[in-house]
Amino acid sequence: MKKHESPYKCHIFVCVKSRDDGRKSCKNNASSELRSTLKSEIKTRGWKKVARVCESSCLGVCEAGPNVMIYPQRIWFSEVTLEDVPDILQTVEGFLGSDE
Ligand code: FES
Question: pLDDT digit string (tens) for 38-47?
Answer without folding.
Answer: 999 999 999 9
